[in-house]
Specification:
Layout (H helix, E strand, L loop, with lengths): L1 H10 L1 H18 L6 H21 L14 E3 L4 E3 L1 H27 L5 H18 L4 H19 L6 H32 L4 H9 L7 H18 L7 H8 L2 H7 L2 H17 L4 H24 L4 H17 L1
Antiparallel strand pairs: 1-2
Helix pairs in contact: 2-3, 2-5, 3-4, 3-5, 4-5, 4-11, 4-12, 5-6, 5-12, 6-7, 7-9, 7-10, 8-12, 9-13, 10-14, 13-14
């Protein structure tokens, strides 16, 4: 039993290392003067690059399992390691490193280059990594909330800025509603199937007449509403322009990059793998969301005079293409 736990932890070593690195960044920053904040920045970069190397180093699919499968499920069915998760993790880690480098001058000039900014960013990236490797609705939700809570705090990092505080409040309230919708839908699916792991849910759905099972359809509806908010697709897009406009520019670029990859991974895990046999039900809704997002996002973006709001509506249109 102990050997199994240790082998599982070794496979999840990138997440474990990044979690330890977050605490190291926080503790080190306490003892550094303002002129030495470059050390915090460099430690953050090293943490991200080493984590990316650990993910890359573990991509040995010739020996991942005795059955020859390219997917390994660990921690009693909660965590999955496969090519999709590894590629998304490396992409998010490298994008996170680039985002911190790109925003360093902006943060320094506004006296925001603090350990809190970097630690919150690392917590957010850790949440994204958990999301794309989740094989259980419970772990998926925990990763999503870790990402969301870190993002709420990052938006409000400029405490004296009224617009940033307003944007953070809007983000928090609408994000909480979206999380509630998603959790409510997951509770329906769990109550009917008796499973939290996506494979068990998929096996249950195979035995059901989906169109006559109102509980499944109701749970799917709530899940799609929650995912629509998290993806930022129309008509669940109302938070994006205000948050992008009110947040510090460095935080806006952070929100507009890696979380989109994590959201894609979450949608793929939940819909394609867990609820794949309900494709005829959720596919039609996604088509509507995609078309509405592409049309609305591109048309309203033309009328914007603020570049950050224009980019926000452009993001809505781009997520429409992703959903499509």
């Amino acid at each position: 039993m102990t050997e199994n736990i240790m082998s599982d932890i070794l496979v999840a070593l990138p997440e474990v290392f990044l979690l330890i690195a977050v605490f190291c960044v926080l503790l080190l920053d306490l003892f550094l003067s303002k002129s030495m904040k470059i050390v915090t920045f460099l430690l953050t970069q090293v943490s991200l690059l080493v984590t990316a190397w650990l993910v890359y180093n573990s991509m040995n699919y010739d020996a991942v399992s005795a059955t020859g499968s390219l997917k390994v499920i660990l921690f009693n069915g909660m965590y999955v390691k496969d090519a999709l998760a590894d590629i998304l993790k490396i992409s998010m880690l490298l994008m996170g490193s680039a985002a911190f480098i790109y925003s360093r001058v902006y943060q320094r000039d506004r006296d925001m280059c603090t350990g809190e900014y970097f630690s919150l960013g690392l917590f957010a990236i850790l949440g994204m990594m958990i999301m794309v490797s989740a094989n259980s609705m419970l772990l998926l939700y925990l990763g999503l909330e870790l990402l969301s809570l870190a993002m709420y705090a990052m938006v409000a990092l400029q405490r004296d800025n009224g617009r940033a505080s307003e944007a953070a409040m809007k983000y928090f309230v609408l994000g909480a509603i979206a999380s509630g919708m998603l959790l409510y839908g997951m509770s329906f699916i769990y109550g009917l199937s008796g499973h939290l792991d996506l494979e068990g849910i998929a096996a249950y759905i195979k035995t059901q007449d989906i169109l006559s099972n109102m509980g499944l359809l109701l749970g799917l509806s709530f899940i799609l509403v929650g995912l629509g908010f998290k993806l930022g697709v129309a008509p669940f897009h109302m938070w994006i322009p205000d948050v992008y406009d009110g947040a510090p520019t460095s935080v806006t670029q952070f929100i507009g990059t890696m979380p989109k990859l994590a959201a894609f991974g979450m949608v793929f895990r939940l819909l394609a793998e867990g609820l794949g046999d309900m494709q005829q039900s959720w596919q039609q809704i996604l088509i509507f969301l995609a078309v509405l997002s592409i049309g609305l996002g591109n048309i309203i973006a033309i009328a914007q005079t603020n570049i950050k709001r224009m980019l926000a509506y452009s993001t809505i249109a781009h997520m429409g293409f992703v959903v499509m």
